[in-house]
Amino acid sequence: MKWEELQKGYRVWLMLEKGLSKLTVKAYIANIQSFILYASNSGISNPQKISRKDLEEYLANLNELSLSVATQSRIISALRSFFNYLLIENEVESNPAMLLDLPAKGVHLPDVLSVEEVFDIIAAIDLSKPNGERDKAILETLYGCGLRVSELINLKISDIFFREEFLRITGKGDKERLVPMGKNARNQIQRYLKYIRNNIRVTKGYEDYVFLNRSGKMLSRVSVYNMVKHYTALSGIRKSVSPHSFRHSFASHLIEGGADLRAVQQMLGHASITTTEIYTHVSNRYLRDAILRFHPLESGKI
Q1: CATH topology for 3-88?
Q2: Tens digit of pLDDT for each residue in 33-92?
Q3: Catalytic residue positions?
């Protein structure tokens, strides 16, 4: 069976059997296409002839491109998945990718906004414009509840409990969690729903979505990203800010204020406490920067 036919079968398997998203399937297929090109150029036409050594040589070639740790890990995951599919289809007798070592991940400290910077970005919104009230509600929700952008655009009216001041969020892996809703976010969402959304002609199928565009449909991730970039530029802040920056800032500011790490983990929907612990490193970094900047011994005032 040709590599091209194996790749087609793998694509179908990823979509139907594994139920992966289109973006994930696209990324995996791109990685496998790259590997197949390498194998073909190396004169390997039969997947049974692929050894762990072949895969390591392929990865060594990729290392010359200075790929990020995350990209290297995804490529190895794609190779493991591909050969697992071939194993199921009896195209190979073993999976040579299973023993590949994943690159070590360092602690990535996300950029965060200060409280003042968050307020400045929100203040840049012109509430007299058509989307002003909606956009303010979006930013208040991103920062006040720590939502992922995918969670924000999929938020339903039926998931908002104004009296109890909670949001019911469906996160990664369709796991549900309850997130406290701050006063600012609650008030702004109510204002948006009452004065703006009630006057929008909603497209059929989107009646329960909170945040809508001019066509009465749910927002896209790109539109929220562009909106955040727009208001960041208006505020004069030169940091690279995305919707996720508000989630990072939400977590960091809570921990800086003394919030329990487990509570923050639950609000963010992290499966592992290790992921949440990144924000303790962020807080420590800001503490260190403050010492270096303001302590007289460090600033050279003494």
Answers
A1: DNA polymerase; domain 1 (1.10.150)
A2: 989 888 888 888 888 889 888 898 888 777 666 677 778 888 899 999 999 999 998 899
A3: 148, 172, 244, 247, 270, 279
